[in-house]
Amino acid sequence: MAIINVSPSTNITALIASAAVSEGDVLLLADGVYNQTVVISKNYIRIVAAGNRAIFDGTNTLVAAFILAGVTGVEINGLIIRRYIVFGIAIIGGSANRILCNSISQIELFGIFVAGSSANLIWRNKIRNVDDGVLLIAASTSNWVIENTVKDSNFDGFESFLSVDANNAFISNFACDCGDNCFEIRGANNLVYRNTAVNATFADFLIASGNNIVAIENKGSNAQDGAVVTSNNAFLGRNDLHDNSQSGLEISGDFNIIQSNLITFNKDSGILLNSTANDNFIFFNRVECNTPADITNRGIDNNLLQNITGCRHKFGL
Q: Which residues, 6 or more positions from 171, have their beta carbon under 8 angstroms from its beta carbon?
């Protein structure tokens, strides 16, 4: 294994493909502007910024800054990525790559795109001015998305696209000013934990297709809806959903458990159970100061137990 110094004039794709680079090598990138797309075709390559001004600039003509093509164990750390027309970083297949502490902006489509890949870590990236911030798609499973920030996305901040995008974890992320939903979560057994969403055009949190999703200790405000649940057997606990222009929590699915949430100051019911929402358990929530009602139940066989309603308590979970 070696540490290889890289400058903006280096063709990094060719370097990685050559015999000069072996699995486990570190490419240490000098400050400067890199006008290139890097295709990583070897496992366990580490690409690390030497300083804080290693800039990948696609000049609004290049497709992507980095494409990880069926590889394992690659790290991309500390880079500034801007002005690419499709991807900031794309992971296609492979597994267990680490995308850490990058600043990604002005990407026409996807900040970080993961397709058919598993066990990746996406941690502490800052993403803004994109269509979608972080997208998991095409049976991407068991990925960890932790402590990232997405601002000013035209569509979704964080998204797992279909029910086959399962067993992923979204933890302690922040999203604001989202043109669609800040968190759009599909996929069985996904975890949404301690995230914050502000100012989505539609929902701060959309919990959709794919059963058994768990959402705990998230905060959502200033959206159309704080959270929308269309899946079945989701568990939502200790979430704080407030000051949304429609519902704090809208439910259309069955057999969900809504427990110990704080839902306040929403404009079209605190909890709205639609006519398709049946056999849900609404337990021990504080649902207060919502208009026109704290809880509106239009479904069948929903069980409501020990919820606090009205407008007379101090707030705090």
A: 144, 145, 146, 147, 191, 193, 194, 195
